[in-house]
Design goal:
133 residues; mainly beta; 6-stranded antiparallel β-sheet; Jelly Rolls
Amino acid sequence: MYSDQEIEIMGFLPAPDEYFTGKAWVKNYVFPDAETDAYVGEVMFAPGTRNNWHTHGSNQILLIREGVCYYQEEGGPVQQIEAGGFVNILPGIKHWHGASPDSVMIHTAIGINAEKGLVNWMDPVSDEDYNGK
């Protein structure tokens, strides 16, 4: 795990607690505006941290930079995606993502067609769902 000083030097800021179980940090690169209809940023998840169930109005693309990403779509199994892998999440798919229990995970998140809505937050992910039970 990175120290608080290392996280600050890397440019990450604390993520909103209400959308995560555990500790997470965000670093934003591109916000939607009149010319760029997309969002690009990174999220760092402490070991065992995951975000709430949510959907997107358009595709979200996750590029896994470090660690192992746990990813689940509603009704499906928990998938483990290694660093260097990616997920293309289709519009309206209820899902969550987070870090494996034993390592930090960092992903780059790309939200396209932001005018369709970036994220619709829902309920926290249960320990049972996180553990694939």
